[in-house]
């Protein structure tokens, strides 16, 4: 059984039976190491391509914000991710953990001098893990990692600002919240709570303002209806003076419109040691194109790299020879599979039928 088949089995069993599954698979130590090595190599390629793609985009964009935050968040800080695009962008574009041996952030033309998606020549360094948007996981910040939290999906965009403030209180450390404009507006009263809690651990709000719901542009419906109809029915455009909202509550506010200003504004906000808002202006109209461009570039590069890794010969990586032909995914054999139905008592009756 292949790893892909095992994954499909796991997903199918969980979805069909709503059950707890315990699997013990016979996996040799060498096959685990080979598979992990393969993923690290491909992750390194992806990281390099993300960096290259972002450097080629002159405009300030949302993937760049996530990449920058994952690299520069101060040690000792926590990170709270808003629903919709912030958590997806951080999961997709955050820098991997540096202390796991990933060179994706520092890889340059020398590391990949032999790589080209056109002729499938390839050389790379090893890679590491990816970021996650779930509580207690880590992103690669200064090689240390930080606690990360987010509201569960069913909670949607309600109360994100207040939840992040509570998260900072629980951690007893500064927290940076990455949130979209609609989520921010849904909990605008949270600004008043910040005003009255100046002695609490500081919350730095990175407010991604694309004047609406950019995530809806990723849905098929965006290409099936007219622009005006899509904007009014799906994109939920807003033109609220967010700086004025912050000023009314006495919360320091900065407005960022360029890539050059982003680092300076975040550094200033973190240095305040008090609650503040950094409003990052992005273009909802080009957001989808930027995402597709980056993902397409990464996809082509990793596919080319994977094809080359399967070739039965050695490939030079500077002064080292990496035997990619030894990266073979061994079949898995399931020794035991058990499942059982379970239920949890509800503290309150269901609110839905």
Explain what this protein looks like in three dimensions.
With 353 residues, the protein is an alpha/beta fold. The protein has a domain at 57-95 and 131-309: Thiamin diphosphate (ThDP)-binding fold, Pyr/PP domains (Rossmann fold), CATH 3.40.50. It has eleven helices and ten strands. The chain has helices at 3-17, 29-55, 62-72, 85-93, 160-171, 181-186, 190-195, 227-235, 242-248, 259-272, 284-309, and strands at residues 19-26, 78-81, 148-150, 175-180, 203-209, 253-256, 276-281, 315-317, 320-322, 333-341. The strands form three sheets. A six-stranded parallel beta sheet has the order 3-2-4-5-7-6, sandwiched between helices. It has a two-stranded antiparallel sheet with strand order 1-10. Strands 8-9 form a two-stranded antiparallel sheet. Helix 2 crosses helix 11 (284-309). The longest helix has 27 residues, at 29-55. The protein is globular, with a radius of gyration of 23 Å. Mean pLDDT is 74; it is low at 1-25, 98-144 and 313-329. Residues 164-280 form the Thiamine pyrophosphate enzyme TPP-binding domain. GO terms for molecular function: catalytic activity; thiamine pyrophosphate binding. This is Thiamine pyrophosphate enzyme TPP-binding domain-containing protein. InterPro entries: THDP-binding, TPP_enzyme_TPP-bd.
């Amino acid at each position: 059984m292949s790893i892909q088949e095992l994954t499909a089995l796991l997903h199918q069993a969980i979805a069909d039976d709503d059950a707890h599954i315990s699997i013990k698979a016979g996996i040799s130590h060498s096959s685990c190491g080979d598979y992990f090595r393969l993923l690290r190599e491909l992750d390194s390629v992806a990281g390099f391509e993300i960096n290259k793609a972002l450097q080629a985009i002159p405009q300030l964009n949302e993937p760049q914000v996530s990449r920058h935050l994952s690299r520069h968040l101060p040690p000792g800080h926590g990170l709270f991710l808003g629903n919709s695009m912030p958590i997806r962008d951080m999961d997709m574009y955050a820098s991997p953990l540096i202390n796991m041996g990933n060179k994706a952030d520092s890889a340059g033309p020398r590391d990949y001098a032999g790589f080209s998606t056109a002729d499938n020549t390839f050389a790379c360094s090893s890679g590491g893990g990816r970021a996650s948007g779930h509580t207690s996981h880590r992103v690669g910040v200064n090689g240390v990692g930080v606690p990360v939290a987010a509201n569960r999906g069913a909670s949607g965009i309600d109360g994100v600002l207040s939840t992040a403030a509570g998260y900072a209180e629980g951690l007893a450390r500064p927290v940076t919240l990455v949130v979209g404009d609609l989520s921010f507006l849904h909990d605008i009263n949270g600004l008043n709570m910040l005003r009255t809690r100046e002695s609490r651990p500081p919350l730095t709000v990175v407010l991604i303002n694309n004047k609406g719901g950019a995530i809806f542009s990723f849905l098929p419906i965006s290409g099936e209806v007219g622009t005006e109809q899509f904007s009014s029915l799906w994109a939920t455009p807003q033109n609220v003076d967010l700086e004025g909202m912050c000023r009314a509550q006495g919360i320091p506010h900065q407005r960022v419109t360029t890539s050059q200003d982003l680092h300076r504004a975040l550094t200033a906000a973190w240095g305040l040691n008090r609650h503040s808002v950094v409003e990052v202006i992005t273009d909802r109209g080009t957001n989808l194109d930027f995402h597709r461009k980056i993902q397409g570039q990464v996809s082509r590069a990793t596919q080319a790299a994977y094809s080359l890794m399967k070739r039965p010969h050695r490939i030079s990586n500077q002064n080292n020879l990496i035997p990619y032909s030894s990266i073979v995914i061994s079949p898995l054999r399931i020794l035991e599979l058990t499942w059982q139905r379970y239920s949890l008592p509800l503290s309150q009756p269901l609110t839905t039928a």
